[in-house]
């Protein structure tokens, strides 16, 4: 098994293990940090810590929940010491390019992204796990370490906040 | 019937409104236009966010990021007993024999507190197989050996302690005492009781330092994660305390042991000297240096002094009465010619030569993502999409290690590059 090899110090196996989850992990980092540069830094930190902590990784079929939780913990630790870029995800597109007149995104997408960027990091993280990784409530509860009822409550709150933000921007426009 | 709440609308959108009590709510949703409109808005926003985040970044960038981190970690030389031996104290080590019974479940750590362990909704479960399309070769699902508690314990909770974590949402009270802690209350003559701070000699050696609790995490009030103001130094450096040898820390990756010096220990060879005596010595030296500086600045000859008149002589200017004071104008050159070297820009003196070049493969195509490392200074540079790089290193011939990103990503080549100012562009050909 690839995980056993990686836990015994096989770096090539570790690389293959992380390669399988790099895109979802990148999405989680981007959602947490709201900026491509910060997401790269968090991605590097997560991989570095994951390589160090690999011997203690749970023997599951997928390392993605473990990596996502590790990224959330690292972001929570570094958030207090790291100045936030005011022009974050809401001001730019998810890939870091600024909005322009030729953007193909609809106003609803822009407003939804802006409302999403105003959420708390935990709410953004939970909503991304649900929408992007399509985890069930029970899986999200397992990853986040909270009851499933709490997950349902936070997801509903996040959706309502985004809806309020989109509604306010549509009225202003 | 009242409309659905936002929790019910959200759960219905996710297909989680399946309990028998919610049949009425589902029936109401099927007939209520307002609830359907609100749910449609939620679905519209969900779809917009999905579309925006569906575009993944360039995979080569992600690969190079991860490979750079792993290559940095690979510089550690693991000892022969690395691997499961370092996990002896951890239950996450997967048994070699699949038929071997799994270890018993551990108590959840504070970072993963579960409210109500009897609730099947929060019991440990296996993730849906749709998450890992990469590992779908096994017909029988892999056993869930351990939840994330073990990871959380190792990474953040610090050394293993027999003491159980406090209950969620309950701050430790003053009356809470550990078992076997010495009595720290003394009685006065009048019958009052004061609490005395125990001296270090009164505390048993086996009992952990209560200050170590500061490094441990406490659950957040909202139930999401734990509070982590600052990790302990050993955790930031990637070490773990050895539970079997107090005071010994081991590298999490290699298992190598280090013993940090005592916190209050004195430097070797330092002599005992009182701070007041040291202050007097330093003050005397500073005073002597100041007097010497004043004498040099005024260039007063030995024996000369100034006399200043008071009263009727106050209108006179001070004059020298003894010795000879040479008065010079501002334009008089100094008696000693000091050769001052011409000022040079500091950047030019300190800047190391910069060497740019191109990394290509055997067919002459540029190789992007190759990592070049100067062995002496560990300065690194990565080639761009056009295969170009720029490195700075001390002048002279330097040993440069090139990590080939192709294939497994762990093939390294070594070559000598000459770092001189104005050097031509280097061309590195990878086999």
List keywords for this structure.
heterodimer, A: 173 residues, mainly alpha, 9 helices, 66% helix, B: 431 residues, alpha+beta, four-stranded antiparallel sheet, three-stranded antiparallel sheet, 8 helices, 15% strand, extended
Major sheet description of chain A: none
Class from secondary-structure proportions of chain A: mainly alpha
**SSE series of chain A:** HHHHHHHHH
Tally of individual helices of chain A: 9
Structural class of chain B: alpha+beta
Report how far apart the termini of chain A are.
56 Å
Topology:
The complex is a heterodimer of chains A (173) and B (431).
Chain A: H1 2-7, H2 11-19, H3 22-33, H4 36-52, H5 64-79, H6 107-117, H7 121-131, H8 137-144, H9 148-172
Helix pairs in contact in A: 3-4, 3-5, 3-7, 4-5, 6-9, 7-9, 8-9
Chain B: H1 6-13, H2 23-31, H3 33-53, H4 59-73, H5 149-157, E1 185-187, E2 193-195, E3 218-219, E4 226-227, H6 233-236, E5 239-241, E6 249-251, E7 257-258, H7 275-298, E8 306-307, E9 319-320, H8 346-350, E10 354-360, E11 371-374, E12 380-382, E13 388-392, E14 396-404, E15 411-419, E16 426-429
Parallel strand pairs in B: 10-16
Antiparallel strand pairs in B: 1-2, 3-4, 5-6, 6-7, 8-9, 10-13, 11-12, 11-14, 14-15
Helix pairs in contact in B: 1-3
Task: Give the gist of this structure.
The complex is a heterodimer of chains A (173) and B (431). Chain A has 173 residues and is mainly alpha-helical. Helices cover 66% and strands 0% of the residues of chain A.
